[in-house]
Amino acid sequence: MKHKLMAAVLVGTMVMSTVGTTTVLAQENDKIELDMWVFGGLSAEPVVFQEMAENFNNSQDKIHVTVTAQEWSSRQEKIVTAHQGGADTAPDMYVFGPCIEDYGVKMGIISPVEDVLPEIANQVKELLIPEVVDVGSKDGKLWTIPSWVDLSPYMMYNVEALKAIGLTEETVPKTWSEFKDAAVKFKEAGYIGYSIPMSMDNYSDMNNEFNYWNWQLGGAPMNDDATVMTMNDEHAIATVEFLKSMYDAGTFSDGAETETYMDRHEEFFGGISATNIGYTYINGIITDMEVSDDLDYIMADMPRPDEGTAIDEDKAFYRMISSNQEISVSSISENIDACGEFLQYLIDEDYWHKWVTEVGARTPADKASYEDDALRAETQAVQPDLVKMYDEGTLMTGVKPKPSYGGVTEIQTTMSQYLVDIITGRYDSVEEGLNELNTECQALLDEYSEE
After folding, report:
1. Is the pLDDT of residue 28 over 50?
2. What is the mean pLDDT of residues 406-420?
3. What is the 3-state secondary structure (H, E, C) of 226-247?
4. For residue 237, how many other CB atoms are within 10 A of its CB?
5. Which of 197, 184, 211 lies closest to 400 in space, CA to CA?
6. What is each CA distance from 48 to 9, 41, 357, 360, in whole angstroms?
7. Residue 304, CA distances (Å) to 173, 179, 240, 337, 423 in order
8. Does 114 have pLDDT greater than 90?
9. What is the dihedral of CA 417, 421, 427, 431, to 10 degrees?
10. How far is CA 325 from CA 45, 49, 72, 126, in A?
11. Both ends of the chain: CA-CA distance in Å?
12. In this model, does residue 12 exceed pLDDT 60?
């Protein structure tokens, strides 16, 4: 899979060392084979990379790029196994995220772009919105190239459901307790009031839902260095007790334990659920669904913790910036220079803007999508609210990068299953369940830290 030259014997081949990685330059008439694995995404997203690769391949005769779409849920097993197999089995580039902490710092599977391709990194830093650069960086060094970012979460409300319980777009719940009261009333009015998708088929749904509320308190599943689990601290306990209280009040869907976030989206856009957690890529999801033109809904700020709730103000936040499709370079690639040529092509073509013209979703990551007259007009046609916020200087106000949340699959799945069991009452107390969760996840975290 890696660096397959068409000629069996290379005469006069040059070997160059680039930050510890050897790049073999092909002779004339030979092609360097690059592989890029794209994990997950909306249906149109892997196609963007495949079409860009095809155009690049047709534009020159030195390098051939093959883009392979991969299942999101398979990322850890496939990436780790391929890396362990060496340069012949691992791709040259990956597209997934967040990946810096787990796949870069801890496992060494990816290298910082700034180390191996400094000229590419410098261009990326100039072209992207500063907060987006932060998403792809650690300690000021650019590791990855985010293709887009999402701003989340928002609470979505069915306007008819609001009317059914005497609320309006201007009087949506402002606090956790108000939201719970409204969810109970929604349920009494015949809607799903508020439900968490708890299926282990997409285990991260449960963890994401927990994080959306826990981050408001300044909590996180682990410490800043991602070395110590904190899933039994006061913030985690308060968050899970709140979510369990919603479950106990009967606001959840009857099938919550078998549902994924896509099931909840379908329930919301089908008029069955009164509420839904929303993101700036929601219009991309809607594209893949049948949504009635009669459905009227709004996106509002998440309800905030009630007065008197213990909050770590230095760490608390309500909106995050994240990307699950960051381009990274394999630490064992033998084709670093060729990777640089392909990445330069993507930059020259402003591939970030494809999420406006081709995908029609996400938050564009590049300044040009908001500032260049022609590109701005295209962005405004798809995401007018984002252009308005960019002009006002509020697009990135108060956002923080998505914290580490145990990206290693075993930790996420363990954490998710425990949370489901605790919320659905399989433990005598929330604290008891979280103590067990924390102990088991810490053992897994220690195991991966030692590898």
Report:
1. no
2. 88
3. CCCECCCCHHHHHHHHHHHHHH
4. 20
5. 211
6. 35, 11, 10, 12
7. 9, 9, 15, 49, 20
8. yes
9. 60
10. 9, 11, 11, 19
11. 25
12. no
The amino acid present at 148, given as its one-letter code, is W
pLDDT band at 409 (very low <50, low <70, confident <90, very high): confident
List residues bridging with 32 in a β-sheet: 63
Question: How high is the mean pLDDT of the chain?
Answer: 89
Collapsed DSSP state (helix, strand, coil) of residue 391: helix
How far apart are alpha carbons 31 and 252 in whole angstroms? 56
Percent of the chain with pLDDT over 70: 91
What band does 406 get if pLDDT is binned at 50, 70 and 90? low
- Buried residues in 179-189 as b, exposed as e (16+ CB within 10 A): bbebbbbbbee
**Which tokens in the block code for residue 228?**
């110590």
Residue 192 carries which DSSP code? B
| Token pair belonging to 229 | 């689990």
- Angle, CA 316 vertex, CA 311 and CA 321 arms, to 5°: 160
Q: Which domains occur in the chain, in start order?
A: 15-149+322-394 (3.40.190.10), 154-318+408-450 (3.40.190.10)
pLDDT of the residue at 404:
57
pLDDT in tens, 51-67: 999 999 999 999 999 99
The whole model's pTM is what? 0.68
Please give the average per-residue pLDDT across 345-354, as a whole number.
Answer: 98
pLDDT at 29: 54
Amino acid letter for position 48:
V
| DSSP track, 257-270 | GG--HHHHHHHHHT
* Contact assessment for residue 185 and residue 298, using Cβ atoms and an 8 Å cutoff: no
The token pair that represents 354 in the structure block = 């494809």
Q: Which residues pair with 299 in a beta bridge?
A: 156
